[in-house]
Specification:
three-stranded antiparallel sheet; globular; binds pyridoxal-5'-phosphate; disordered C terminus; about 400 residues; 12 strands
Length: about 400
Amino acid sequence: MPVANPNSRIYFDYNATTPLSPGAIEAVTATMRDQFGNASSVHRFGQQAKARLDEARSEVAALAGADPSEIVFTSGGTEADNFAIRGAADAAEPTGRRHLVASAIEHEAVLNTLRALARRGWAVTLLPVDQSGIVDPARLRDAITSETSLVSVMHANNEIGTIQPIAELAAIAREHGALMHTDAVQSGGKLPLDARALGVDLLSLSAHKFNGPKGAGALFVRRGTRMLPILTGGKHERNRRAGTENVPAIAGMGVAAAEARGKLAAESVRLAALRDRLETGVLAAVPGTAVNGDPARRVPNTTNISFDRVEAESLLIALDLEGIAVSTGSACSSGTLEPSHVLRAMGLPPHRTQNSLRFSLGLFSTAAEVDRLLEVLPGLVEKLRGLTRRPQPARTSS
Ligand SMILES: Cc1ncc(COP(=O)(O)O)c(C=O)c1O
């Protein structure tokens, strides 16, 4: 059952961020109020904070299919991705394996980290994706060499929701002695996760994508993986990440992880039904629309739809004026009119890459909200198309 929406506006941008669950809010505030101690302190205050950290570590480990000792808390998904790539690269540097492989549709947290390493002389190969946004494992076989130290391919894409064949890719990485990282920021809490079954060495999570607070994330580091810390200082997080832990946010992440795991099966079914209602409704009511991504291999809450002859940014603003929040792709690149690098990598023509909207649903989404969208969207599209209609060439009789 969806919880009552605390906000009368309609929010279909859960892949950008999610509202906190009531349980996560309670965990954050109770920890701020009652467990202010430093988790490294020996006295009672410290031990109480440490107990909160340990509880959260167990819950996040359970969400990822990991052992609690393999969870390193970070400040979010961006830091988890940075730690995975830079930490593995720094550890591999002395071996001379200075080649990294990733997919072309990774989040900027991965792509810009790879660009930074490329500036330091690392070789980087970006794997292409097919028309539905999936990496063919054969492309990894072509690209990987004995110099490759790390392969990084996201589990689910933030813009189109497409799920990658991570277990197959990880097996290839392992055969070649490379580490495998997956950015699971968009699948954590949406798909069952099992780091061991996926065969990955490193897996990134971010609390604010599954109804936890912003500023908390985690990297699963498989036991025995050689990594150097990117934040140096004290001996926190088993010497993997220095700095006093953000215990309130981490406690909120722990509760959100437990809740997400508990309701994952039911929520997947509920959200997929709502997403399908939205998608089929839009396709039926608005001519000149098409879904981007793989119709089957995707997370249950996401659809990405192109609207012919409408600038996505204008439609986004028109919907916002109607009280409905959607996105033109990744939040980090909105505000610019750059076409999505994800849709471009899929080889879609400009009228699809520039005119697409992402609808992502979650905890508070309801059928009534979807129906409200379907009520207003066709009229808005028609109006915008009328405004942008180009003069038609005069017809000749011959
Ligand atoms: C796939 C993916 N990776 C990484 C991130 C970054 O996570 P955070 O916002 O916690 O830094 C995001 C957030 O947009 C994401 O969607």
